[in-house]
Specification:
- The protein has 846 residues and is an alpha+beta fold.
- It has 13 helices and 46 strands.
- Helices cover 22% and strands 28% of the residues.
- The radius of gyration is 34 Å and the shape is elongated.
Length: 846
């Protein structure tokens, strides 16, 4: 027999139409039958064949067999072919294919932590590209492939990368191997760089351990209280996608120890409220507010906690995540036949939700942080009770009630109607921002707009009847990715700061402190200008009241000041090692008009010390090549510095371009009056000279790019991908490997009339594929679907305005049983199907 491409064997994909021909001469109608079985030996096609026939590929992946039998059942011909599937989206307009491809690419850019990726291509954010989205961690002779070395980041990235990369469970394996005896799960694992700092900061408190034999450091960011439930959820996700029951059962005891640790450690569990607790952080992040309640440590004080001194409180996100992981652990335990233990964790989840709702739910969303000690009153310059933070979006997918979901989503929709100028969306880390206690307003965790939070908000919107809102978020995320270099970013700037009023400047008179002239010869009491092998000077540099790069300076007149113009320091060359310039004023930043003979190999040309009137001081290095350079190499790399003056000249023999630089140095303590500025020489012997110093009342204003900073972009890509595949495409799993799938195509909400979807777990052969078509004029939606599993529930979203389901049938009109399901204000037509055989359903609506 001849099948498909005519070579007797070939590769096919699910829902492909395959032709079988040349099965023998003289075979009449009904005299032969074509039977096709899938990769698990299940028959999915059987029909008469005369000369040739076609069938639609479906069922389990692997080797499929097509057999033609005569009327007596004898085999007349047989052919085998391979069937495989890869995740993807193909829609008529291409919007969601473009989004899928963008997110798929985003997930392969990994955070450059720890130096393990030396020698590979990096982008401008120092992320690096990995074809499979992983990097290696070596431990005890095994290589673990991980998406990110932090369990929090790895988990959420895995929710999208599970469709294309099989490595979700490997960080679970690593952390299970290294789990502390009391059940604690480490935040991360590093071989160098980051791990060295963590070990120095946390080793005495037991939150960082080093295994020198394996060159690895395991660290728990002390204030974090999410690692245990992240670990359990990652184990659950790995089991669902990979279907490895034995692996799952071998991980259960570790998962139970992890969740029990959260209740047994007094630094993690609030006996007062019966809930998880932590120090005051923004949402689930790992640094605390800087205020009078922060406990001081020699290193890493914002991350450190003290069980006796830290002012703890209940952050609701720790608890909604923990409750969800209790549910997931209960499901795994029940599947493994451990019913009594499963019930224990179900009851624990229910108790946590009940207590949390009583404490933190305000009727619109969960309150960010509730202190254990009611006497703790923090001055953050914002009404904390009105702050909407991103774990509310995450909670939509953690088992909240439909009423809570509606209230949370409507809170985000109201926020969208009142966004500050320049905001890219309502998916904030927290809003409004903190005015005090946390820096970086409108950036990162202090009211940055987060791509990953948008993904969770969209996924929850699809789940709870706000499908149009979910689709709109996904379209906006594609727009954001286009504005940020073709990648969805972890975070974006939360607002455009209004451009401030023009600045005021105060130029200082350096004539009293000046000790260096502008000529290549000593003049009066002045030391000659910078040593130069060609004897070139800057005698023609303009002096007096001058403006350079928009900033006024007072440059001493050498004719009236004994030849002295610049204040110069050096550990050699007959110059003082330091010099002080009196100030006696407030300053937001200081502008320097300066030059240097080099950096002596240290990279630093001078140390500028701000001496304050209260007796304190702060030091800022003047970096060679960044803030200053030599007179004849007048080019600088970086912002906040440049060339102030440039002129061609020389000594009659050598003619070159000469230049003097400017640099803005921000005052590290702008709220304090500056008594003086001290210029300290580089110890390696180079000379530094400042010709002018001007105070500015505030630093220069620069409109920052739309992208913010902080977390890994692959995390954002992963959660947006989950919203696309589980939410809009609607493919979810009630068992493992899509053996019992729920498929809810929601394309009507996006206005997409034709699309083909494949959701494939990369860790197994589990997949679902369907082709969706909407005829608006006929008020009919058809879905052709198949998959690896035995059964599925197909739930087709009707378009907005549809009055009801008219009928559900096969293409020939044969009616099928169905139910009308209402979710919020949305209506679905639902039918149970056998997904191992390709089947087409037609849904007609009023």
């Amino acid at each position: 027999m001849v099948i498909g491409r005519g070579d007797g064997s070939f590769f096919a994909v699910p829902l492909e139409e395959v032709r079988v021909a040349s099965v023998g001469k003289g075979v009449g109608p009904g005299a032969a039958r074509l039977e096709v079985t899938d990769g698990e030996g299940r028959q999915y096609h059987a029909g008469d064949i005369s000369g040739e026939a076609t069938f639609t590929v479906g069922g389990a992946l692997g080797t499929h067999t097509a057999v033609v039998r005569d009327s007596a059942g004898a085999v007349m011909g047989e052919a085998r072919f391979e069937v495989d599937a890869a995740s993807g989206v193909a829609d008529g307009e291409g919007t969601f294919k473009e989004l899928y491809d963008t997110l798929n690419e985003t997930m392969r850019w990994m955070p450059a932590y720890g130096g393990e990726q030396d020698g590979v291509a990096k982008d401008r954010d120092s992320a690096y590209y990995s074809p499979d989205g992983t990097s290696p961690v070596l431990y005890k002779g095994r290589e673990y492939r991980v998406f990110v070395r932090w369990i929090l980041d790895h988990l959420h990235t895995a929710k999208g990368l599970m469709y294309t990369s099989p490595h979700a469970k490997e960080l679970v394996d690593l952390l299970r191997e290294a789990q502390r005896a009391d059940g604690l799960i480490w935040s991360n694992a590093y071989t160098r760089g980051v791990g060295d700092y963590h070990y120095a900061a946390y080793r005495e408190s037991g939150y960082s351990v080093r295994d020198p034999e394996n060159d690895i450091t395991f660290t728990r960011q002390p204030v974090e209280n999410h690692c245990e439930y992240n670990y359990v959820e990652c184990a659950y996700l790995s089991w669902k996608s990979g279907g490895d029951d034995a692996w799952m059962e071998g991980t259960l005891d570790s998962c139970m120890r992890a969740l029990d640790y959260g209740m047994n450690d007094r630094a993690r569990w609030s006996e007062k409220y019966g809930l998880l607790k932590r120090g005051y952080t923004i949402d689930t992040w790992d640094f605390q507010a800087v205020d009078e309640y922060l406990v001081r440590f020699p290193l890493g004080e914002r991350m450190q906690i003290d069980p006796d001194s830290t002012k703890f409180g209940v952050f609701f996100g720790d608890n909604t995540g923990y409750a969800r992981s209790c549910d997931e652990l209960a499901e795994m335990l029940a599947y493994a036949g451990r019913a009594a233990e499963a019930e224990k964790y179900r009851e624990r989840a229910a108790g946590i939700r009940e207590r949390l709702d009583a404490l933190s739910w305000n009727g619109r969303f969960y309150r960010h942080h509730v202190p254990e000690d009611e006497g703790v009153v923090r001055d953050f310059g914002v009404d904390e009770a009105e702050q909407l933070n991103m774990s509310n979006a995450y909670t939509l997918n953690r088992g909240c009630t439909a009423g809570q979901a509606e209230a949370i989503i409507r809170s985000y929709q109201r926020l969208r109607e009142a966004l500050p100028e320049g905001s890219p969306g309502e998916f904030y880390s927290i809003y409004p921002p903190f005015e005090r206690g946390f820096t970086g307003k409108w950036q990162y965790m202090n009211a940055g707009v987060h791509g990953h939070a948008a993904g969770e908000l969209a996924r929850g919107a699809f789940r709870f009847g706000f499908e149009g809102y979910g689709a709109d978020i996904l379209v906006r995320l594609l727009g954001l990715a286009k504005r940020s270099g073709g990648k969805l970013k972890f975070a974006y700037k939360g607002a455009e700061e209004p451009e401030p009023e023009p600045r005021s400047f105060t130029a200082l008179d350096l004539s009293r402190q000046a000790n260096m002239g502008l000529r290549n010869a000593e003049e009066g009491g002045a030391v000659r200008w910078m040593p130069d092998r060609f004897g070139i000077d800057i005698a023609d540099f303009p002096t007096g009241r001058r403006e350079f790069a928009g900033v006024p300076y007072e440059v001493a007149d050498p004719g009236r000041n004994g030849g002295r113009v610049a204040v110069a320091v050096s550990t050699g060359m007959g110059l003082p090692e330091s010099a002080e310039v009196p100030v006696g004023a407030m300053a937001g930043s200081v502008y320097l008009l300066h030059s240097a003979s080099g950096d002596g190999g240290s990279g630093v040309s001078c140390y500028l010390t701000f001496i304050y009137e209260d007796g304190s001081s702060k030091v800022r290095p003047i970096l060679y090549g960044r803030h200053v350079t030599t007179q004849w190499w007048s080019r600088l790399d970086g912002k906040g510095a440049g060339v102030a003056w440039k002129a061609f000249g020389g000594n009659g023999i050598v003619q070159i371009d000469r230049g003097i630089c400017w640099a803005e140095i921000e005052n590290p303590e702008p709220g304090k009056a500056v008594a003086a500025l001290r210029f300290g020489a580089d110890p390696c012997g180079s000379a530094y000279a400042v010709l002018g110093v001007t105070l500015a009342d505030r630093p220069s204003f620069e409109r920052l790019p739309i992208s913010s900073f902080g977390g890994p972009d692959n995390w954002a890509g992963g959660l947006a991908m989950a919203a696309l595949m589980e939410g809009l495409a609607g493919v979810e799993d009630r068992l493992t490997m899509y053996r019992d799938a729920v498929v809810s195509p929601r394309w009507a909400a996006a206005g997409t009339d034709k699309v083909e979807i494949t959701a494939r777990y990369a860790a197994s052969h589990g997949y679902v594929k369907y082709a969706y078509s909407h005829d608006r004029e006929a008020k009919a939606i058809s879905v052709t679907i198949t998959g690896s599993g035995a059964r599925a529930r197909l739930r087709v979203l009707l378009p907005e305005g549809a009055a009801g389901v008219k009928d559900v049938s096969l293409p020939d009109g044969t009616p099928l049983g169905h139910e009308a399901e209402a979710v919020g204000g949305s209506l679905y037509a639902a039918s149970d199907i056998v997904q191992s055989k390709p089947v087409t359903l037609v849904v007609r609506y009023y």
